[in-house]
Amino acid sequence: MKIVIIGAGMAGLTAGIALKKFGHEVAIYEQTEKILPVGAAISLWSNGVKCMNYLGLTEQIKRLGGQMNDLAYIDGHSGDTMTAFSLAPLVKEVGQKPYPVSRAELQNMLMDEFGREDIHLGKRMTQLIQQDDSVQVKFADGTEISTPLLIGADGTHSITRTYVLGEQVSRRYAGYVNWNGLVKASNNVAPLEQWTTFVGEGKRVSVMPVADNRFYFFFDVPLSVGLENNRNTYKSDLKGYFEGWCPQVQYLIDQMDEQTTNRVEIHDIEPFLKFYKGSVVILGDAAHSTTPDIGQGGCQAMEDAVYLARSLQVNTLGIEDALQRYQDKRNERTKEMVLRARKRCDVTHMKDDAVTQAWYDSLKKEKGQHIMQGIINNIVGNVLD
């Protein structure tokens, strides 16, 4: 079957690879002239890695992934360790190591695996119309295409979602701003194979190891939405927000490159359960835009892609039947992930001072089991369990 995907991000590329493996003829249309990753890196938890394994990309992901063997929380002011433990029990429980990876490197790998010749850039969709057994798509450059199945992987600002739902939904500001990037890994910040998070005042500073001796870093600060965004003041801004924090955090700020650092106001979208209309279906952020607080956004997009491809392959009562089964399998799980991330966001970023302080206090008593069980709960129940 000929299939068109709108959007060449992680969701669209993963779906394209999966569908090609089942013999479909797939083309991806992307509105930008040049594909650039959104964010510096992504934490691929074990369920996301299993999706990559399923698509035959095991070795590619291992090469891109950092060795994240341990986890620690550090008091951001004193630099004292609140809790630290090995992730080995988690890996044994779920059967796969997690891999933090550079977004740019992951996206390039996925484009190579899909086939760049089938990715059409500079194609901004302006209209889609269902006509009998096909979907007509119009682009801003005046071109038109027709396809039996249209997959919307066009992100948090999805046009396809508006078509499926019959209305445009609003994004919800989660209450904090995130700065993220890549730096050379250094023991002056944290152990090289450890996911380390400094916490205090509802703020977070975190580093994860990625390939080639680098740390993926991010800073979270609860702030009002719509503040000035001046790349040239990122370091001084963060020095102000984290004044009095421990030397490790100050060293990290000094090492970051303002010109390659991203600043993002974090939003999500209220969960909904309708993922398709006729022969048009959505996945990834178009279907369930979430905050990054449990690291499941990309992983859920990959689960979507694998299950959608499998549903189209094994169900033979027609496209809409397969899309209905995909929707019914995925919508409740992704809704739960959005709400879990929102709840974790509120605790981490001090929506309620007492709740966040209670969490800080609990970290000092944590041996690892509670935190790992929370992560395991996000991983299990995926399409490949």
From TrEMBL:
GO term, biological process aspect, one: urate catabolic process
Pathway(s) annotated for this protein in UniProt: Purine metabolism; urate degradation
Keyword Flavoprotein attached: yes
Keyword Membrane: no
Record's catalysed reaction(s): urate + NADH + O2 + H(+) = 5-hydroxyisourate + NAD(+) + H2O
InterPro entries in the cross-refs: FAD-bd (IPR002938), FAD-dep_Monooxygenase_BioMet (IPR050493), FAD/NAD-bd_sf (IPR036188), HpxO (IPR047712)
Enzyme class: oxidoreductase
SUPFAM superfamilies, per database record: FAD/NAD(P)-binding domain
Cofactor: FAD
E.C. number: 1.14.13.113
GO MF assignments: FAD binding; FAD-dependent urate hydroxylase activity; urate oxidase activity
Keywords noted in UniProt: FAD, Flavoprotein, Monooxygenase, NAD, Oxidoreductase, Purine metabolism
Stretches assigned to the FAD-binding domain: 2-339
Matching PANTHER family: MONOOXYGENASE, PUTATIVE (AFU_ORTHOLOGUE AFUA_6G14510)-RELATED
Family: Belongs to the FAD-dependent urate hydroxylase family.
Identification of the protein by name: FAD-dependent urate hydroxylase
Provenance organism: Acinetobacter boissieri
Upper classification of the organism: Bacteria, Pseudomonadati, Pseudomonadota, Gammaproteobacteria, Moraxellales
